[in-house]
Amino acid sequence: MQRIYRFINANARRPRGLMGRFLGWLWAWESRAINDKAIALLDLESGDCLLEIGFGPGETIRRVLARYPGLRVIGIESSDLMLKLATARNEDAISDGRLSLRKGASGVVAELGEVCTHALLVHCLYFLDDLQQTCERLSGALKSGGVLVIAAVVTDAEIPARFMTPAYNFRSTAEILAALETAGMHAEVHQDEGGTHGALRWFRATKP
C-alpha cells in the first residue's frame, strides 16, 4: 500500500499523464469545501487582484471569477498538465484579460512586484522547499493591506497515513505562523470547527 501512496503522492507534487488527469478531476471536487473557506477568509471584492499559487485544474479560479465579475486573477503553476487543464477551463477569462496563467514556482512571484491585493495557496505549501522565502515573496507581491490565505495540513495534528511519503514536506502551525510574521505580516490561524479536516489549518495573514 505504501508503494501506491508513494506513486500517487509523487504525481501530486508535479501532476502528469493519466494519473495527473485523474488527480486534476479529483481535486476539482474533493477540495471544494476547503477552497470555499479559504475564499471566504480572503474577503474579496470586485476590482481586486488575486494571486493563486498552485491552481491545479483551475476550478477554484473559474468559480471565483464567476462570483466576482470585476476580479483579476494571476495564477502560477509548475505542472504543464495543470496549466493545460486550467487554460481550457478558463478560456473566456483569459481572452477578456481577467486571467493570466503562468508556469513556474514561487520564484515567479518575486518578479511580479506589489501588484496583488490578495494571494491564495491551498494544499501546495508542502511542495515549496523554502517556507520563509516563499512567505517573503508572497508578501512582496501584495499591496499594503493585502491578504494572504494558506490552507495546509500541519504536523501538530494527526496526518492521514496516505500522505506520509517523501513527496510531502509538512510544517507545524508554529512554523508557518513564524514564517509569516518574519515576512512582515500579521497572521492568525483558523481551524475546522466541524472536525471534518482535523489536520488542516487555514492561515490568514495581512500585510501592513
UniProtKB/TrEMBL annotation:
Name of the featured protein: SAM-dependent methyltransferase
- Record the organism: Limibacillus halophilus
Domain Methyltransferase type, which positions? 51-150
Task: List UniProt keywords, sorted A-Z.
Answer: Methyltransferase, Transferase
Secretion signal: which residues?
none
Q: Name one GO molecular function term.
A: S-adenosylmethionine-dependent methyltransferase activity
Q: Name one Pfam family in it.
A: Methyltransf_11
Name the GO terms of the biological process aspect.
methylation
